[in-house]
Amino acid sequence: MKKPLIGISGNTLRDTSGAYVDLIRSYVNQDYVRSIEEAGGIPIIIPFTENLEQAKETIDIVDGLLLTGGHDVYPLNYGEEPLRGIGDVFPERDQFDFALLAAAEARNIPVFAICRGCQIVNVYRGGSLYQDLPYDKNCTIKHSQNQTPSLPTHTVDIEPDSKLAQIIGTTTWITNSHHHQTCRNIGESLVVTGRAKDGTVEALEDTNRPWFVATQFHPEMMHVKDVHAKTLFKAFVDATKEVN
Ligand code: MN
After folding, report:
1. If we measure between CA atoms, which residue out of 178, 176, 184 comes closest to residue 136?
2. How far is ligand 1, taken at its centre, from the CA of residue 89, in Å?
3. Cβ-count burial of 14 within 10 angstroms (0-12 exposed, 13-18 middle, 19+ buried)?
């Protein structure tokens, strides 16, 4: 059986080091690539483009979509002006990610969205974000751990009847945490299936679709040592084998 092709949404990197003054590179973090490979899929990096038709056509050749992390979502996309705590935004990439998501939903292929990807999914469905953690008065836990990417630092409580709990076989997962924004109002057809102990949204699912899981934490960075992260990536790649 052929291995499934997994599209990984790309980002750009401005390189001002070395011989180049201002070079724009297309890239994804290697952790995403490695995680897909180890789970039995063939990773296909989908390079960022402002050609949204091309982005959509790329989805036609893959069996699943992995939406990756990156910049803060442009707040005007959820009807808010930028507050002082927001970080760098990349509105053109929001449109690119929305186009990939729209095409993936049209084909009903499995979608796995991580960190910014989780936030993109929520905003795409009409939800909103806290632009910075202090704007959520209930947020008392450190979510920007600022050290070893794979290190598990906070607890995530998972809904027992969720796909996530079914996959990893437990309702408690100690995860890493690398975010300063979180989901606020939840978008259409999405359910919160994981929360940190302070109530911060850590996982979303669309239960109307065959496989649609989003995590605020970074299982791809935990994948080296964490059995739940391995299991989750395997479940995602296995689900894409059902796609015709
Ligand atoms: Mn967190």
Report:
1. 184
2. 20
3. exposed
Q: How many residues does the chain have?
A: 244
Rounded CA separation 42/63 (Å): 10
The answer, as to whether pTM is greater than 0.70, is: yes
What is the separation, in whole angstroms, between the first and last Cα of the chain? 13
Q: Any idea which residues carry the catalytic annotation?
A: 115, 218, 220
Q: What share of the chain is helix, strand, coil (3-state, %, to 5)?
A: 30, 25, 45
Q: What residues does 9 pair with on adjacent strands?
A: 46
Q: What is the DSSP letter of 78?
A: G
Burial class of residue 16, CB neighbours in 10 A (0-12, 13-18, 19+): exposed
Which residues are in the CB-under-5-Å shell of ion ligand 1? Answer: 143, 177
pLDDT digits (tens, 9 = 90+) for 31-71: 999 999 999 999 999 999 999 999 999 999 999 999 999 99
In three-state form (DSSP H/G/I as H, E/B as E, the rest C), the secondary structure along 91-106 is HHHHHHHHHHHHHHHH
